[in-house]
């Protein structure tokens, strides 16, 4: 049984209406979400509605109202929003979420336990989504229910939001909500707490530290087609043709070998400052001049810092898909290299094209046989950390795990927070709080990997982290003791008056 931290108990004033054992509630909700197996294969067929129904049933149990929206052609892919106004509604809109309820497929044969049975083994919940990110969805739903049923006065609006389709780009989930003006207004938030933070940075001996990594921004994304043109013909007379596939192979090699200019961001400096790597390594890795050489050395040694430093300090261009002909006796006249581009903050389409042209070389581009087509582009998004939410998160972290410090980084991947940052100007962090033993390395290996699992203790810490952060952020924590003494009845009237006088 998970004990409620004294700070949480104190600020809530009285035992939560949903029960004291937030940890157990989180475990049981997480298990239900895993068992629903909302696997997103990227073809629009994922039935996230099952997990949304589970969340709705959980809120129904406590009389919490919510709304559900889905794209017109996709009733199987809804998103859910619930709000708690603990006062006048004046103040920031703070979102627990967006939390995606879909998961990536699992290779059942490679797992030690079945991935969709959500078994409790060795104090851990095993299952696909247990770290990405049904754990956070469950913890945030329980935290929301705990706070909304407490009827404490709050300055602002607390929101819970669960969405579909993150694992395939979010077009039917957060992308849909943020691209529709009416829905954007309903789902808009000033602050978001979403996935990927809350693990610790390991020290140089790979031991857990008390420095917690949180995400304050993420790289932009681009999908580019490099179309290579040749002259088709019969495979039996290869020298009579101009094989486009051979040209495409050269493009692949050029892109794979290309290093775009080094950009040292404030986020990367923060990570290096908090890192336990030797001084000389940290110094070199924060110098645009020396970084490429030291990164090459780290890559040569197979050190994990090498690939992280490479991707965190530049635009990356990864040629990941190649199409030519499907017949072995035909020399293709056209071949297409699909490239996954990841952009640093401030880099636009023009920069991307310049870098692609540099990678492919002037001579090649001038030949007219190569064409660059940008199919998709979404810029990098970042949030500042000198905000009340960051302060509240740090305070909650210190309260729950002794000696913690927080550090913010730029995620090299993409999450739904980009839609909220880009379309409604939200300050969004990838955040949670796990046991210190869960290091960033371990988290990275587990997410989308085999044997994904989370300890029950981490779930207990994370649910209280969300409760405490919201109480510090919206509940005027210093005054919380006063709140408790004169806490209003269920209609909230007295609390509201008191709330106004305090603010
Ligand atoms: Zn995720």
Describe the fold and architecture.
One of its GO terms (molecular function) is hydrolase activity. InterPro entries: Bact_exopeptidase_dim_dom, Peptidase_M20, Peptidase_M20_dimer, Peptidase_M20A. Keywords: Hydrolase, Membrane, Metal-binding, Transmembrane, Transmembrane helix, Zinc. This is Peptidase. Pfam families: M20_dimer, Peptidase_M20. The chain has 503 residues and is of the alpha+beta class. It has two domains: 235 residues, Aminopeptidase; 159 residues, Alpha-Beta Plaits. The chain is 39% helix and 21% strand. It has 19 helices and 19 strands. The strands form five sheets. It has a six-stranded mixed beta sheet with strand order 1-2-6-3-7-18, sandwiched between helices. Strands 8, 9, 16 and 17 form a four-stranded mixed beta sheet that branches. A hairpin with a 5-residue loop joins β8 and β9. α2 packs across α4, α2 packs across α17 and α10 runs antiparallel to α11. The radius of gyration is 25 Å and the shape is globular. The relative contact order is 0.18. The C terminus is likely disordered. The site of zinc ion (ZN) has 5 residues, from loops.
Helix content: 25-40%
Globally, the shape reads globular
Distance between the termini: 37 Å
Query: Which class best fits the helix and strand makeup?
Result: alpha+beta
CATH superfamily of the largest domain: Zn peptidases
| Count of strand segments | 19
The major β-sheet equals: 6 strands, mixed
Q: Would you tell me which CATH topology of the largest domain applies?
A: Aminopeptidase
Q: What Rg is obtained from the alpha carbons, in whole angstroms?
A: 25 Å
Small molecules held by this entry: zinc ion
Number of domains: 2
CATH class of the largest domain: Alpha Beta
Beta strand %: 15-25%
Tally of alpha and pi helices? 19
Strand order within the widest sheet? 1-2-6-3-7-18
Second CATH tier, the architecture of the largest domain: 3-Layer(aba) Sandwich
